[in-house]
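Q: I have four molecules that I believe assemble together. Could you output structure tokens for the complex as a whole instead of separate predictions?
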Amino acid sequence: MPENSQQEQPRRRQARGERRIAQLLEAAASVFCTTGYTAASTNAIAREAGVSPGTLYQFFPNKEAIAIELGDRLMHEMRETYGEALAPVDPTTPLEEAVGAAVDRFIAFNCDHPVFFALMHGPDIPGRIAEEHDALHATLVSRIEALLASLLPDAPPADVSRTAHVCLGMYKAGLELVLAHEGAERDAYTREIKNVLIRYLEPLVGDRLGTREDTGAATTRTP
Amino acid sequence: MPENSQQEQPRRRQARGERRIAQLLEAAASVFCTTGYTAASTNAIAREAGVSPGTLYQFFPNKEAIAIELGDRLMHEMRETYGEALAPVDPTTPLEEAVGAAVDRFIAFNCDHPVFFALMHGPDIPGRIAEEHDALHATLVSRIEALLASLLPDAPPADVSRTAHVCLGMYKAGLELVLAHEGAERDAYTREIKNVLIRYLEPLVGDRLGTREDTGAATTRTP
DNA sequence: CCAGAATGCGAGCGACCGCTCGCGTTTGTC
DNA sequence: GACAAACGCGAGCGGTCGCTCGCATTCTGG
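A: Yes, here they are, computed for all four components at once.
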């Protein structure tokens, strides 16, 4: 066997094909959003895209590949949009600013791409997407850990890691609440999730950074 | 038609039948826990219980009825175990105690009955269970709202309601973290979720109740 | 003891779903 | 214009799943 074992050349595509792929992915995003991954049928995706099931399988080898391609494009767009903006956290940034900026960015992305949440948090996602989600999750946790460690050099690593996991968990729960509302209420929930995180972290780093002085935004009601 | 339109008398059962029902529900709980509701096949439940599919359908009209009966029994046990202990909240109780006790109770119940979480938070649950979940959710939210309103009589109802929803959302996310760990780590996460809630609520009610004096448990590390 | 109800079985029905296959149409290349 | 490759179709294959049906077995009341 002189050539290609396990290989599969990506097949020559015409512009029409690329358009179909984008069309199918858009339809898949819509169907995944409304029914979740497992309940979404490939025939329904094809119907939503206005093509036949056979056409769908011209471009994707199976159902999982659709979700994977969609996930990859979302991940790529996420990295492209926010780039390394979420990589290095300047330890001199006030806590409120750092938390607020990070929350705003991720919430904005999820509001723009609701399928991202559906794919990442469905309990029935295919293995490959779960891996990507775990990788993203681990990346975010270690970013938070690094930030916390720089603020609390004396804290045991186990505590830092636990705190980071709690922060991410609270953020995710808040994201769900935010996505469930719209307009002004959505903004109000966004503020609340920031408050949760800031007040949770404040006692840990409050004696190290001046986050208490007179920012005046820590309490939203009864002003 | 003098009798029974739409009615269905619950059919006379023998002791053997009641035992089979309990056996089937136990098997269903196990299967639902590991695969979720939708992915759980009735044949798998019957196999797990050591009976034939036909026997299963002797006692349950369809798959949804199994989940509903399981949900009803869990709800009943929940009310029986905690009774009205979660109904009236004495407004003079310190915030930390009230939050800590409520969190401990619900976490204990969920640790004892992991299928409860699987049934209530699966995205693919049948309509009836979703209704029960929504009812429980609404009940808990209004309990929290009542407590908050008694502490903050001047706050706008919309803010109180939002804060209650945030509390419950944070608790649920914390529950997921707690269930994902065991032993000492599980206890540590339990403390963290209490901290999240207490610190989130403290600034709102801190000037009304003395929760700040010297309980000394608000911070777990770097003592 | 016996009639009838309750219990138990498991092959299999109908529906759906992921996916294929054969064949016709469009597009790019020389 | 000719040829091959990419595109497009939709009936239908194989498989799973929820659920049924006919029949055998066990229990209960009289």
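A: One point stands out. Chain B touches chain A through 39 residues (CB under 8 Å).
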